[in-house]
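Researcher: Structure prediction, please.
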Amino acid sequence: MVLVCGIDEAGKGCIIGPLVMAGILTDDAGVEELKKIEVKDSKLLSAGQRQQLFGKIIDIVESYKIIPVTPAEIDAAVQSTDGMNLNWLEAHKAADIVNFLKPEKAIVDCPSPNIKAYRQYLLRLVDNKKMDVIVEHKADVNWPAVSAASILAKVTRDAEVEKIRQAVGDDFGSGYMHDPKTVEFFKKGFEAYPGIFRKSWAPYRKLASDRLQRRIGEFQESNLRMNEKK
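Model: Predicted structure follows.
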């Protein structure tokens, strides 16, 4: 039976917390079992459903690998001058998962609009060049193995976000900038908790720049007042 690996991520677009990559390894029989427990794209499931499926998936699959990617590592990739970017960083993590699980076939949910380029880049990073590699958009919808990986990634990401909430003592919501709770916390906490934010994201860079300009203005105004008093 063919050993197949499904790979997906969670948290790519958020400004708070890690991106999480996950992969599972299973055979044809395992894929049928995943279908029976009705795995699907994690975004189509409630938090409770994902939690219930997490343990069932672990019991079914042959092996799995989960890789949290910190905001600092994401920033380094996004701000890199050597051609690295977030999509290529994901490809490196996907290759790490493939090389660990050693499947005969890998199915990867593609983060890039250019599927061909992403597949070629990924193939350069994997150890087994003869492995069958399928790279698709919406692979987490179309392939049970990728659906299972998406659930592992999302549950892990949610757990990491909860740890951050407990550490900062504030409910900042989902960590995405479309969430009003996240926006509110971001504006008041981006300097107090710099390690949890992706500093390469445009909202962070803009707010940091605005705060810096304001402080420069306040400093210049203060100096002007002092000089006027002399």
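Model: The longest helix spans residues 202-229.
Researcher: Thanks, that helps.
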